[in-house]
Design a protein that fits this description.
This protein is mainly alpha-helical. The chain contains 17 helices and twelve strands. The protein binds zinc ion (3 copies). This is [histone H3]-lysine(4) N-trimethyltransferase.
């Protein structure tokens, strides 16, 4: 695939990426394997460390008892990379290093292995920002602790190895504090089909992409492979952007998160115009404040309290209100956990007007939500509704049309969706009298 983008200096933003030719909406811009990656600690029991597939049962590495794999094939494929990590993990037991420490270590192992990595990737790693100068002392202190942990972790492989390994790194990354700072600022969260976080990865060439609260590209993962797709038509020389954060939030919230986590003030169009803020705060303030300030705990209480909160807010707060939408989404998760399918369907439908408003371009979150609604309808035997939610009529932007653009035709989730649609069609044929 000929690349249709190049790095450039984006006015006011430093490095960036721009298109070198027109890119159509839905086009796959690039597909990249991580330079280094690791499964999140909290998902390590359910996700294969080699292929990032989620499974009920996984084989466990008999030595570190930490890494888990689908089967022997995944395990033996992972071994050349896991061998050194395994020794470090064993040495540190019962302590287990955090995700960013494991990611940093796997980067060092990858760079110091004979097969090495391309110089281009090293080049961009060298240029990644660490933001150490603009960081609060408290944050710096937290990162120093991670850096010491990294030192200790690598030390398990051999007393002087940590020093040797450093020479494999580009000069600006040899200081572990600086390396950890670069990694936490530039790593990508790897998510599964349902968009739950399953790991973290480094894709140095894509770290140059700048943020926009209404980006023209989105990222979807297949295993740990990152696929970048255009969700708007992009013309030659136009900058490519992604969103670093969840965009379904108020301008003020987005700006705070971007400043805290990524150290910049977002000047995007959506921020400048406070786009959709008013709609997100629609309704009677006294009523939505209750929704905003609610603290909910376990699933059962959560479902009861959200039902209570939502009916108390009543018609005074529309479905598009941000806080109402958040509570409705939580109630949906709770109902699904408690296997209360009718309730789950009711809540899931209530989220759609908000999603339609706040994801004006095709977005994976919107597509996946519609797929969830359709699956509930299908399960509850509302076959026609399900098919409508999946496919829509006359080219409406529903699950299929959105995911065709955000995930592409061959993505496993899209294959799933097409199978579901086929099931619906068969069931409707059986029901209709001939
Ligand atoms: Zn696997
Ligand atoms: Zn192991
Ligand atoms: Zn913005």
């Amino acid at each position: 695939m000929a690349l249709k983008f190049e790095r450039f200096v984006s006015p006011g933003k430093g490095n960036g990426v721009r298109a070198t030719a027109g890119i159509r909406r839905g086009e796959l811009v690039t597909s990249v394997e991580p330079l280094a990656s690791c499964v999140s600690l909290k998902r390590s029991r359910e996700v294969c460390q080699q292929c990032f597939a989620r499974r009920e049962t996984l084989l466990r590495c008999s030595q570190c008892k930490m890494a888990r794999y689908c089967n022997v094939t995944c395990q033996s494929r992972a071994w050349p990379g896991h061998k050194r990590e395994c020794k470090c993990l064993r040495g540190l037991l019962p302590r287990v290093p955090t995700d960013s420490v494991r990611l940093a270590a796997s980067l060092i192992f990858a760079l110091s292995s004979p097969s090495g990595s391309s110089s281009e990737e090293l080049y961009s790693l060298e240029e990644h920002e660490s933001h150490l100068n603009s960081m609060s002392e408290q944050k710096k202190e937290g990162l120093s602790q991670l850096a010491s942990m990294l030192e200790l972790f690598l030390h398990q492989e051999g007393p002087n190895l940590a020093e040797e390994l450093k020479t494999a790194l580009p000069p600006s990354c040899r200081d572990f504090l600086c390396l950890i700072a670069k990694i936490t600022c530039n790593c990508f969260t790897i998510s599964d089909g349902e968009l739950h976080e399953i790991g973290v990865g480094l894709y140095p060439s894509l770290s140059l992409l700048n943020h926009d609260c209404r980006p023209n590209c989105v990222m979807v993962f297949e295993g740990a492979k990152l696929q970048l797709r255009a969700v708007q038509d992009i013309s030659a020389e136009e900058e490519l952007t992604i969103s670093y954060i969840e965009t379904l939030s108020l301008t003020e919230e987005r700006q705070k998160q971007l400043a805290d986590q990524y150290h910049f003030n977002c000047q995007c169009r959506r921020c400048q115009t406070h786009d959709k803020d008013e709609l997100m705060l629609a309704g009677e303030e006294a009523a939505w404040r209750l929704l905003k300030e609610a603290h909910l705990s376990d699933w059962k209480t959560l479902l009861e309290s959200s039902l209570h909160l939502l009916s108390a807010a009543g018609a005074g707060v529309p479905d598009e209100n941000l806080y109402r939408l958040r509570i409705t989404d939580m109630a949906l998760d709770a109902a699904i956990h408690l296997q209360l399918w009718d309730e789950a369907l009711k809540y899931s439908l209530k989220t759609l007007p908000g999603y339609r408003q706040y994801y004006p371009d095709p977005h994976p979150v919107h597509g996946v939500q519609l797929m969830r609604v359709g699956k509930l309808q299908h399960y509850l035997e509302n076959i026609k509704d399900a098919l409508d939610t999946f496919k829509g009529t006359r080219g409406e932007m529903l699950a299929y049309n959105i995911m065709k653009l955000t995930h592409g035709d061959d993505h496993p989730l899209m294959v799933d969706l097409k199978m579901k649609m086929e099931e619906c069609r068969c069931e409707m044929d059986q029901q209709s009298p001939h």
